[in-house]
UniProtKB/TrEMBL annotation:
Provenance organism: Rothia terrae
Gene3D superfamilies: 3.30.230.10, GHMP kinase, C-terminal domain
Molecular function in Gene Ontology: ATP binding; galactokinase activity
Family: Belongs to the GHMP kinase family. GalK subfamily.
Record-annotated GHMP kinase N-terminal domain positions: 106-213
Name used for this protein in its record: Galactokinase
Amino acid sequence: TVEAQWAHQPDHAAHVERVRTAFIEKYGVEPDGVWSAPGRLNLLGEYIDFLGGSCMPMPLPYRTYVAGKLRTDGVLRAQSLQMPHDERTVVVRDIRPGTLKGWFTYVAGVAWSMNQEESEDITLPASFGADLMIDSTVPVGGGLSSSAAIECSTALTLLDLSHSLRENAGAALPSTLTEDTHDLRARLAQVCIRAENKVAGAQTGGLDQTASLRSIPGQALVVDFRDFSLQPVDVNIQDANLSWLVINTNTPHELAGGEFAARRRATECATGALNLDYLRNALPDDLRCAGLSEAEAKHWRLSTVDERANTALSAMEKFTRCTEVPRGWIRHAFHDMCLVERAAYVISRTGADGIQAWEELGRLFTESFVSMRDELQVSREEINVAVDTCLDAGALGARIVGGGFGGAVMALIETDKLEDAATAVARAYAQHGYAAPEFLPMSPGIPAQKDA
Ligand code: GAF
């Protein structure tokens, strides 16, 4: 009989040591340090970060580790333990969008992007170079933000190493860089977003980089992408005997392909047709439905989505720049915007309302999944089977995480039912003849940091 395959619980200290040792084996010297950054589990709010919607990411215990050493000849070398035969070397000043391929675009792209900054504090000195060894525990193409984990760990590494270059040269560090502030991390997130958009060629929004650099240990954030402001949310599921079931369906997605960009383009076109800064501004300011029952809130949400989507679609029909007018994509955007803000409110009620609030949260997750499957159309059979099996196994809710077309599924489930649900998914996959899924143990993650 088929059993669920659980990944190892990640051991942070062991991974720091592993990447350090690999660096020494490769380069023959101690690195100057080790840095790391997490992937993220986005609890809710997909394909709306680039529209000024709010999303709810939480840092994962799965991270990308970078051991690095300064060079002063302008050369950047990197190797990844996941791609041992693909060592890369580039002259930092020669990095340009469109000239590199594969995983290294996430590394070199960050160096390039730092040098696009206007203020000098983040740009790299002319002689700056580095040797890097990279190791990642974030499933690649799994919707858990493996790309941002590389970008953000690289950004911290390059920034810190460039500080030592400035200090070695006797230059005082600008005051903006002497402290690891929220402001600095917000700027680094923008650097990483530009790297991904321009050099890696994926038209993603800012969700992943914000989560990786700016999360609060062990907590979720509500990020308002109109101004990138953050609200921490304590999602205390263990006190309610609940757990996250996170499944890597082993059906990797590829966001540099056209499907993601097409959805972004079309929904941004709605923003233009409505003459707004952000599509989020087409909805009322307050989407929480505070004080309304679950049924009342849902009724309000669905009628608001209908009404605003109709307005947006008629504006788009008249707006010559909108070549596609995909009804479901617009509806999904409004729908998920409403769901996130209701979810944040429902979580704030869990102390008072107990299990009923958690149950509503679960149903909000599933409602979002249905919208991703039927309106946004980013699901696939393997994902549907995983979600349906989790729900049949008693999950309060289940959904795709991240950009879709494959990747990860998460469910909120009673801790007592976790193992059985995982087994049920593993068996359903075997019955369908799908590749075996992997189950990822969850524990609280922490944001990007210097480890050693
Ligand atoms: C990917 C992107 F990188 C994010 O910006 C976000 O749009 C997400 O897909 C979908 O919510 O992770």
